[in-house]
Amino acid sequence: MIKAKGYAAQDEKSDLAYWDFERREVGAHDVQIDIHYCGVCHSDLHQIRNEWFPGIFPMVPGHEIVGKVIQTGAHVKKFKSGDLAGVGCLVDSCRTCENCQTGLEQYCSKGPIYTYNAQDKEGKPTYGGYSNTIVVHEDFVLHISPKLALAAVAPLLCAGITTYSPLRHWKVGKGHRLAVLGLGGLGHMGVKFGVAFGAEVTVLSTSPSKEAAAKDLGAHHFVVTSDPAQLQSVIGTFDFILDTVSAEHDLNLYLSLLRTNGTHICVGAPSEPYEVSAFSLLGGRKSVAGSGIGGIPETQEMLDFCAEKGIVADIELISMQDITAAYARMLKGDVRYRFVIDMATL
Ligand code: NAP
Ligand code: ZN
Ligand code: ZN
């Protein structure tokens, strides 16, 4: 076994703390990565607090992982020692179902194997990226361009692909009015991709203080959702709403902002179910849809697109010891726009 160190939650009530643990040996098709940076996703906080389902503890969160390959198994073809590498939310899947066969491993019909808070094919717990090293099958490791600042690439592995994938799926681009609801880690990537794809982008935010920064990100308009006059001015105007909100909110209100045939795309994952009135949908033939992270081929496509266009996340680098304070700030919406842990501090 490989000795690893990381930060783990011992149960759903504890803060993260230093923890020594073991990773599997590097198998014939595995790559071992020395983790340099790991992004902090709101999903990490949902999961250590058991907000979605009872988790597997001790839990080492983190699924926005970048670093360097330090060891490869005998049959590894895609990577060599010294290569930059990334790992997102998935570390394996059944590989044979219709979804896996078409590059939609995130929707594997047998259930994908998530990077942490899951069990691998041998039934052993998976541990995430708040750690110095990880061992992953090469098919679930992504190539990272040296052109981009590595720490700022980390959030692309979840926040990036989670917003890129639905915008591509619904072909959001020129001629579309896109609203991004919630300007956090996912939201700010949604703005960058929406702008890059040619859409007219409006940020819908509860935080008036984010207006100037939203415009810096490329957003064309900014609407404070708690201001009735501002909200009134955008009723019936959007083709798509990309909803990245992490907490309970009223979809009916936002559905009223869609044009006829508009689509409200849920990527945020609050713990409580939504209540949607039939009348919010049938008046205007509207759709509520959802999208989960992205498959491996599309994640690589997104990373290559970002390298070509010079797109990275806007980050605040923190030390591992600052994680609890960072979670508290994330809960208040006080992050511009993604915390990334410098693993050298572990
Ligand atoms: P985040 O950085 O905390 O951003 C969430 C943003 O939502 C906040 O910055 C805030 O933006 C807004 N918000 C928060 N509470 C709100 C409320 N009560 N009402 C309205 N707006 C509120 O979180 P994140 O990392 O981007 O993740 C967002 C959500 O996506 C989480 O639930 C996460 O688990 C989920 N997620 C889903 C997937 C997927 O596969 N679909 C992947 C990754 C993450 P403003 O200040 O602008 O209002
Ligand atoms: Zn995530
Ligand atoms: Zn499958």
SSE order and pairing:
Elements: E1 2-8, E2 17-23, E3 30-39, H1 42-48, E4 65-72, E5 84-87, E6 90-92, H2 98-101, E7 113-114, E8 133-137, E9 142-143, H3 150-153, H4 159-169, E10 177-181, H5 185-196, E11 200-205, H6 211-216, E12 221-224, H7 228-232, E13 238-243, H8 251-255, E14 258-266, H9 278-282, E15 287-290, H10 296-309, E16 315-319, H11 323-331, E17 338-342
Parallel strand pairs: 10-11, 10-13, 11-12, 13-14, 14-15, 16-17
Antiparallel strand pairs: 1-2, 3-4, 3-8, 3-17, 4-5, 5-9, 6-7
Bound molecules: NADP nicotinamide-adenine-dinucleotide phosphate (NAP) and zinc ion (ZN) (2 copies).
Instruction: Tell me what portion of residues adopts beta-strand conformation.
Output: 25-35%
Bound molecules: NADP nicotinamide-adenine-dinucleotide phosphate, zinc ion
Q: What is the terminal separation in angstroms?
A: 20 Å
Shape: globular
Q: What are the low-pLDDT stretches, counting only 5+ consecutive residues below 50?
A: none
Main β sheet profile:
7 strands, mixed
Give the number of DSSP strands.
17
Mean pLDDT: 97
Helix content: 10-25%
